[in-house]
Write a structure and sequence with these properties.
globular, 43% helix, 2 domains, alpha/beta, 5 strands, TIM Barrel
Length: 258
């Protein structure tokens, strides 16, 4: 994906007009040091990402998950060093417990290293556990929130019992949601029909109206997906609609960290 994106940036746009983000942590090679957030892994993987992207810097370099095997001081100092080297403009984090995120920010503050400026977390109408601690923490700390899976891997865009190629093969997604969520999906459909919107527009608008949210991360495989994402920016749900969408939610264990 980095190679494809790199070619697109070269052929269709001016690099400096784009905010380019990528991640580190997942193993991209068979080398024993390829994954994780050790100093060696971070220093090596940023160079590989830059080569694949065909650029000499990325705007936002995000750690994909918390690495319990590596001291947070080692990780944060390495991330600070790639920022100081000019290869990275800002750093961000993704799905982890709030205490883990706070621990990493504290290490940066204590040593005068670069802090995370964004949190990419799992947040949508079917999974709102980030409202307990992560969202309030990010608001307090001035950290931007860019949720992944705002459409619950497509579940919020279609009737609950719809069978699709993704629903049949998405084992990870099956572990995130539960059958009782169908009530929320039905409410999304009701609101969408009444407002003459698509279900995707309603679900995205809900995310964007929540406190602390900077922007949801959307995936596009069809032109209509992009149309829905753009249109959702101008949708303002009423207090009554927000309540209607939120009432069926039932708390559950935090999910999406693996």
């Amino acid at each position: 994906s980095e190679e494809i994106l790199g070619r697109a940036l070269k052929d269709f746009t001016d690099r400096d007009s784009v905010v380019l983000a990528t991640k580190v942590n997942g193993p991209m090679r068979s080398d024993i040091n390829a994954g994780g957030l050790s100093r060696k892994a971070i220093m090596t993987e940023i160079d590989h990402s830059l080569r694949r992207l065909g650029t000499d810097y990325v705007d936002l370099y995000q750690i994909h998950r918390f690495d319990s095997r590596t001291p947070v001081e080692e990780t944060m100092e390495a991330l600070h060093d790639v920022v100081k080297s000019g290869k990275v403009r800002y750093i961000g984090a993704s799905s982890m417990y709030t205490w883990q995120f706070a621990k990493m920010q504290y290490a940066a503050d204590t040593h005068g290293w670069t802090r995370f400026i964004s949190m990419q977390n799992h947040y949508n109408l079917l999974h709102r556990e980030e409202e307990r601690e992560m969202l309030p923490f990010c608001i307090d700390q001035g950290v931007g929130v860019i949720p992944w899976s705002p459409l619950a891997r497509g579940r919020l865009t279609r009737p609950w019992d719809t069978v699709s190629a993704r629903s049949e093969t998405d084992e990870f997604g099956q572990s995130l949601y539960q059958d009782s969520d169908f009530a929320i999906v039905e409410r999304v459909t009701q609101v969408a029909e009444r407002l003459a919107l698509s279900a995707a527009q309603v679900a995205l608008a809900w995310v964007m109206q929540q406190p602390g949210i900077t922007s949801p991360i959307v995936g596009v495989t069809k032109p209509q997906h992009l149309v829905d994402a753009i249109a959702a920016v101008d949708v303002k749900l009423s207090t009554q609609d927000l309540t209607l969408l939120e009432d069926p939610y039932t708390p559950r264990a935090v999910a999406g960290f693996r």
